[in-house]
Amino acid sequence: MSGTIRRPNKRKLKADINVVPYIDVMLVLLIIFMVTAPLLTLGVDVDLPNSNAQSMKAKEDPVVVQVDQDGNFFLTVKAGDKEAVDANTLATKVRALVKQNDKEKLQVYVAGDGRANYQPVMNAMSILQKAGVEKVGLISQPEKGKQ
């Protein structure tokens, strides 16, 4: 018995990478991202000016929604008189203003009382967004001595 020793014919070695587990992981991650992506876009879009911004020069008088300390809304349209309104009336009047004017040029600002809760100010911005206003600015007074 002088011969070579033969290996029993088992499986041949494969040099390929098994990618099936990687595809499974990729599909699970894809599903997770597809479910969570819509949840990240909730909120009210607001364009806030920088703290060192100069006064804005407006060609037209803006629409101003004021929120007092008690959470009441007041609407001032085009430098007119301040009018007390409830949430439904505010939405109706702003929706009419959006239809009458160009959305891009309509300037809408929210002025919240410094002692007011944050929730009524957020409610005002939500009402404005639902009425069709695309950009909302916030009005504040500069600190004394920093002008």
What is the gist of this entry?
The protein is α/β, with parallel strands linked by helices. It is 30% helix and 14% strand. It has a domain at 63-138: Nucleotidyltransferase, domain 5 (2-Layer Sandwich).
CATH architecture of the domain at 63-138: 2-Layer Sandwich
Shape: rod-shaped
SSE series: HEEEHEHE
Task: Could you tell me the CATH topology label of the domain at 63-138.
Answer: Nucleotidyltransferase, domain 5
- Strand portion: 5-15%
Strand order of the largest sheet: 3-2-1-4-5
Percent helix range: 25-40%
**Overall residue-averaged pLDDT value:** 78
Count the beta strands.
Answer: 5
CATH classification class of the domain at 63-138: Alpha Beta
Coarse structural class: alpha/beta
Summed up, the helix count is 3
Low-confidence stretches: 46-51
How widely separated are the two ends?
Answer: 105 Å
